[in-house]
Amino acid sequence: MAATLLALVACDLWIGGFRAWWDRHSFTGSVVSSLLVLAVTALIVDEVVARRQRRDRAVSVAVQGLIVFGQARRACDAVLASGTNDLSSTSAQDELRTLANMLLAASPNLFDDPEARLLLERVERISVSMLQSLSATPGSTQSADSRERLASQMAQAQAAVDPLVARIPIADRSGLEGSPQE
Question: Fewer Cβ close by (within 10 Å): the C or N end of the chain?
């Protein structure tokens, strides 16, 4: 769009035959200029509407990300509390299943927002680590490395959720699941 406009202006300035053609076809020139003004106006309005929609959805996306983070934290706590590599651990298995369902449901909304996408990626890594931790040598105790890796990944997810929490009005934060205590 901008390149077309720039090309028309350049041709008008440097090519005499081009300028003369537009002079002889004033009605066509008027229609083309009106269409260009309309197109630029439509692009500006579209951008304003898109920004407004992103701003309006920012809090909703943040709340959804916070809920997913809270479930990831509960699942991680259940896996760490089980203390063993036992995929049949009912509590840990239920929490992981719930987390997987939440990730599937929330992914489309979280994916469009860069900060929420980072949280989504980190929670997905945590869920894989939890599943690996529970699947490794059934009945054995969790290794210190496995527990440390989960704790490190939860800290990274906490760092990713903090920008999302900042979007939520302070008065509303305390009632939300998984929000950090202030």
Answer: C
Number of helical H runs and strand E runs in the chain: 7, 0
pLDDT at position 24, please? 85
Residues 85-130 have pLDDT tens digits of 555 567 888 999 999 999 999 999 898 889 999 999 999 999 998 8
Single pTM value for the model: 0.68
CB 106 within 8 A of CB 64: yes
Question: Which contiguous run of DSSP H or E holds residue 178?
Answer: none
Q: Which residue has the tokens 């054995």?
A: 140
User: What is the residue type of 92?
Assistant: A
Q: Across all residues in the chain, what is the average pLDDT?
A: 85
Residue among 52, 48, 44 at smallest CA distance from 2: 44
Q: Is 139 left (phi over 0), alpha (psi -120 to 50) or beta?
A: left
Q: What are phi and psi of 78, to 5 degrees?
A: -65, -40
